[in-house]
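It is worth pausing here to work through a concrete case rather than discussing structure prediction in the abstract. The textbook approach is simple: state the sequence, then state the predicted structure, then interpret. We follow exactly that order.
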Amino acid sequence: MNHHDDPQEREAARLEGRAEEPCDKVPTYQELLDDALEQTFPASDPISPSAAMHAEERIATRKDEKDWALTPGSECEAPQAQAEDSTDRQERA
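Step two, the predicted structure:
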């Protein structure tokens, strides 16, 4: 039995770079990267070359009045809907 007939040997040859047929070869990292790049274009939003023209300008905005810090879940009470859901699940179990 030659290695073309044995699926395990054929897979080993493919992974080790010894495959003879182009369709059996593992793509190189560069080929995969090129393919991924090709799949990202054209994107739904075109690039904005003008944004780079103003990159050195400083932009300042006022801070929000609201403090957006989050408290850990264990420090705050669960909303009523979630509490009822967990009770229903416990009753069904």
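Step three, interpretation. Helices lie at 7-15, 29-40, 49-53, 80-92. The chain has a mean pLDDT of 71.
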